[in-house]
Write a structure and sequence with these properties.
Layout: H1 2-8, H2 10-22, H3 31-40, E1 47-50, E2 57-62, E3 65-75, H4 102-118, E4 124-132, H5 140-146, E5 155-166, E6 170-172, E7 175-178, E8 180-189, E9 193-194, H6 204-222, E10 229-238, E11 244-245, E12 248-257, H7 260-280, E13 284-291, E14 296-298, H8 300-314, E15 319-321, H9 332-335, E16 340-349, H10 369-386, H11 400-407
Parallel strand pairs: 3-4, 3-5, 5-16, 6-15
Antiparallel strand pairs: 1-2, 2-4, 6-16, 7-14, 8-12, 8-13, 9-11, 10-12
Helix pairs in contact: 1-10, 2-4, 4-10, 6-7, 8-10
Bound molecules: nickel (II) ion.
Nickel (II) ion (NI) is lined by residues 100, 102, 135, 160.
Length: 409
């Protein structure tokens, strides 16, 4: 049934996706995208409500009886990237591109909403569709949580495009699937002066260079080789002229980890390395560490339900367990601070090199075959989740809601 309805609306979904792709909007500016989604869902029985600042919306669909509420979230924003795909429906907004596949996410959620609206007499409970703004800037999820989007939600799920899984497939991982992201700045202080008289100054540039080198020791020598982390210095700024010794250098970058413990270790090492090196060379250093999003940790029972749903509806070849987590970040993790949930991957790769270019790449082309897989997979998962109480096969997963309440999260 799910597949039949999905193929019936296939052409409509492709048009929706291409229209969204042509009209990308930056984080917190998704006004037209929001209006477009409202229009696409206006003939359904879904109760639509724009978010308070006019970007993003939620929609609630009630099934045939009382039951739990499953939230399904799609992020709708684009990136400041000049598109180089050469597609006919490439971005018409100069300098903006849907390079993270959020146009696919939005289309899949519209599709799942249209499918589930037609099947609403076949499940108990409710579905809350969340079209979230501003994922790329990590603002959106926090904002919607503050507005109470999770107040009546039992579990939450989302998908993300993945060029390294083939189109037609869905992949996922138990436990941690994405990293925690943190930003840091290190100010290195010296004493400025004439470049010809270094003995009268404290030059912060070589101190900063030693600190950059020292930071490489954190992952390679401080952490266990079995732990995963990234420490990247992305920017160095210092100096104003070739014959002047600067008095300050600023370094900044990102730290990615899969656990909070590793993150705490890195923060402590970073402070020790920066401050000690600067002191040894008669300068000073101050580390500013800004926690970003926590890691995305999947609920294993939901992963099992997804496997059943995808296998039943699309066949066993359409489901894959990912061998490793990604060190990328996702603001979906903020929802998981409040309710348990799952992020899974929607394969968008094919034989063409541009399909494997990677997220945020100006040349990346997402295979549109993924849209149908996403709509069928997500709809089947939602039905399976909401009807789990009536389906003996699900067994241990049947009390997902009950366990959640006991945890009191
Ligand atoms: Ni993304």
């Amino acid at each position: 049934m799910i597949e039949a309805i999905t193929s019936e609306i296939h052409d409509q979904l492709i048009t929706i996706r291409r229209t969204l792709h042509e009209r990308p909007e930056l984080s917190m500016q998704e006004y037209n995208t929001t209006a477009f989604i409202m229009e696409a869902l206006k003939d359904t029985s879904i109760e639509l409500k724009p978010c308070s600042n006019g970007v993003g919306l939620t929609g609630v669909l009630h099934g045939s009886a009382e039951g739990p509420t499953l939230a399904i979230r799609a992020d709708i924003d684009a990136l400041p990237i000049i598109e180089e795909t050469g597609l006919e429906f490439a971005s018409k907004q100069p300098g903006l591109m849907h390079a993270c596949g959020h146009d696919i996410h939005t289309t899949v959620l519209i599709g799942a909403a249209l499918v589930l609206d037609r099947l609403k007499d076949q499940f108990a409970g409710s579905i809350k569709f969340i079209f979230q703004p501003a994922e790329e800037t990590m603002q959106g999820a926090k904002l919607l949580i503050e507005e109470g989007v999770l107040d009546d939600v039992d579990h939450i799920v989302c998908l993300h495009t993945w060029p390294f899984t083939d189109a037609g497939k869905i992949s996922v991982k138990h436990d941690t699937i994405m990293a925690s992201t943190n930003q840091f700045e290190i100010e290195v202080f010296g004493v400025g002066g004439h470049a010809a008289h270094p003995q009268k100054s404290v030059d912060p540039i070589p101190i900063a260079a030693h600190i950059v080198t020292g930071l490489q020791q954190i992952v390679s020598r401080t952490l266990s080789p079995l732990e995963s982390a990234v420490v990247t210095v992305g920017q160095i700024h210092g100096g104003t002229a070739d014959n002047v010794i600067a008095n300050k250098v600023k370094l900044s970058g990102t730290v990615r980890t899969l656990t909070t413990e590793v993150n705490d270790k890195i923060k402590a090492s970073m402070e020790e390395i920066a401050e000690s090196i600067a002191k040894a060379f008669k300068g000073g250093a101050k580390v500013h560490y800004h926690p970003g999003s926590p890691p995305v940790i999947n609920d294993s029972r939901m992963v099992e339900l997804l496997e059943e749903a995808v296998t039943d509806e699309l066949g066993p070849d359409a489901f894959e367990i990912l061998p490793e987590a990604s060190l990328g970040g996702e603001d979906f993790s903020f929802y998981l601070q409040h309710v348990d949930g799952m992020l899974f991957r929607l394969g968008t790769g094919n034989g063409l090199p541009q399909s494997r270019a990677g997220l945020h790449n100006p040349e990346v082309i997402f295979d549109e075959k993924s849209i149908e897989t996403g709509v069928v997979g997500m709809s089947a998962f939602a039905m399976k989740y909401l009807n789990r109480g009536h389906d003996e096969k699900i067994g241990a997963a049947a009390d997902v809601g009950a366990v959640h309440l006991v945890k009191g999260k």
